[in-house]
Specification:
Elements (H helix, E strand, L loop, with lengths): L5 H40 L5 H33 L1 H21 L3 H4 L2 H31 L5 H29 L2 H6 L4 H18 L5 H8 L14 H5 L2 H21 L3 H7 L5 H29 L2 H23 L4 H19 L2 H7 L6 H17 L2 H10 L5 H19 L10 H6 L12 H4 L2
Helix pairs in contact: 1-2, 1-3, 1-5, 1-6, 1-8, 2-3, 2-5, 2-17, 3-5, 3-8, 5-6, 5-16, 5-17, 6-13, 6-16, 11-15, 11-17, 11-19, 12-13, 13-15, 14-15, 14-19, 16-17
């Protein structure tokens, strides 16, 4: 088959970047608007006079989404390895669209009793499964679809789109707060962001249907003879077990990053309000500005990793988070102005960028094609559910017990575990993700040095 002209190849890679990133944006937009608008729809589904109890009920349903992420990672990671990255990406955005629409039209307690809460629960289960699969499918697709010397750059757009999804949800919240009354928001206005999310997902569905499958997956699917693997085991737990050490690496390298990310993103506003005594509007503006600049940083860090390797950035993140969390969080707790809080927040997010910008590429580069999506999905989702999803709860638990600063040491400890992992693991930048890349390295029988089980053990 003749090679595609350079212009066609560039257009294909741009479409892959846009399709993978926009879908990820919509997924995370829908994921976060639930938490953002819960204060307005909690009493619509749970009766009573205690608003805290109502919020706890909606928060419980929110937590169920995290529990479903490993399930989604397993099911959709398997689908991506067996049926293709494109089909998995299309399926995840379809599930998220259905979930958003279910929340948008869910009947209230006054209309249908607890049936509305049941619809809310079903939608959150779908969202959790969708997010669990989306991370792996988009991480694998963005990495495989990028030029070999630009994988760090390509994968960095995963956190660009994730952050933009948060910012979009926050922007819609601010807009509705200024255009509708509180009564209108509690009555029907809270449904608007979910309708918007469902419409966004339809557009992304159409876009993802136009994506081309990655070369790495096509090679794996069409392999024959000595190059072929047992098709029945592709994307299975049995196949993943052969790469259990790499799966353990994914969990360990995710631990510090996910705790730090949720600490300085979703928990930051609550910490500035509850501990620093900052006005809610000021704290929200700090978070919005910091996240915007954080998104801008990701591609630059991704490009840097393509030049110097992945491990230097990961080690810099882990060292900075291990030794810097306590002083940064302590200073944030006494920040008295917008600029001081913004400066400290940006310092923390610059440190975290060493992880967020390249973690998708690193995880994808650890596994061979036949189990890559599942290998990224399942261990990441488990680590995220256990540590990322509980970070805010742990922080509030320490605060409620009168030992708030112990949480800072908890974050540092998680980062320290990841630091040991980064120091001991191989740098994955040079990994060959396809047979064509392996042949270019003069190793036609190998999937890539980082993917080989024996070598990753050292």
């Amino acid at each position: 088959m003749p090679a595609s002209p350079p212009g066609d190849e560039r257009r294909k890679r741009r479409l892959a970047l846009v399709g993978g990133s926009l879908g990820n944006l919509v997924e995370w937009y829908d994921w976060f608007v639930y938490a953002s608008f819960a204060i307005y729809f909690a009493d619509s589904f749970f009766p009573g006079d205690n608003p805290t109890t109502q919020l706890m009920n909606t928060a419980g349903i929110f937590a169920v989404g995290f529990l479903m992420r490993p399930v989604g990672g397993w099911i959709l990671g398997r689908a991506a390895d067996r049926h293709g990255r494109k089909s998995a990406l299309t399926l995840t955005v379809t599930m998220m669209s259905v979930a958003a629409l279910l929340i948008a039209v869910a009947p209230t307690y006054g209309q249908a009793g607890y049936f509305g809460a049941l619809v809310l629960l079903l939608a959150r289960l779908l969202q959790g499964m969708s997010i669990g699969g989306e991370y792996a499918a988009s991480a694998t697709y963005l990495t495989e679809a990028s030029a070999r010397n630009r994988r760090g750059l390509g994968s960095s757009f995963q956190y660009v789109s994730m952050t933009c999804g948060q910012l979009l949800g926050l922007g819609i919240l601010i807009t509705l707060q200024h255009t509708l009354t509180t009564a209108q928001l509690e009555s029907w206005g809270w449904r608007i962001p979910f309708l918007v999310g469902a419409l966004f997902a339809v557009v992304v569905f159409w876009l993802r249907r136009r994506l081309q499958e990655t070369d790495a997956f096509r090679e794996e699917s069409s392999a024959s003879g000595e190059d072929a693997h047992d098709d029945s085991t592709r994307g299975t737990l049995k196949a993943l077990w052969q790469y259990r050490r790499q799966a353990g690496l994914v969990m360990a390298l995710t631990l510090g990053g996910t705790v730090a990310y949720y600490t300085y993103t979703t928990y930051l506003t609550k910490y500035l309000v509850g501990s620093a005594g900052m006005e809610k509007t000021t704290a929200t503006l700090v978070s919005f500005t910091a996240l915007t600049l954080f998104a801008v940083l990701q591609p630059f860090a991704g490009m840097l990793s393509d030049r110097i390797g992945r491990r230097p950035l990961l080690i810099t993140f882990a060292v900075g988070c291990t030794v810097g969390t306590y002083p940064i969080m302590t200073a944030l707790g006494s920040a008295s102005s917008y600029w001081s809080a913004l400066g400290l927040s940006l310092l923390a997010l610059v440190i975290i960028t060493g992880y967020t910008s390249i973690n998708a590429a690193v995880k994808a580069e650890l596994f061979p094609t036949r189990v890559r999506a599942l290998g990224v999905a399942l261990p990441y989702a488990i680590a995220n559910a256990l540590f990322g999803g509980t970070a805010e709860y742990v922080a509030l638990w320490f605060k409620n017990s009168g030992h708030e600063k112990m949480f800072f040491w908890y974050v540092s400890g998680c980062a320290l575990i990841s630091l040991v992992t980064y120091v001991l693991m191989p740098d994955t930048r040079a990994a060959a993700l396809s047979r064509a890349e392996a042949e270019a390295d003069g190793e036609p029988e190998r999937e890539g040095r980082a993917a080989a089980p024996a070598e990753a053990a050292h």
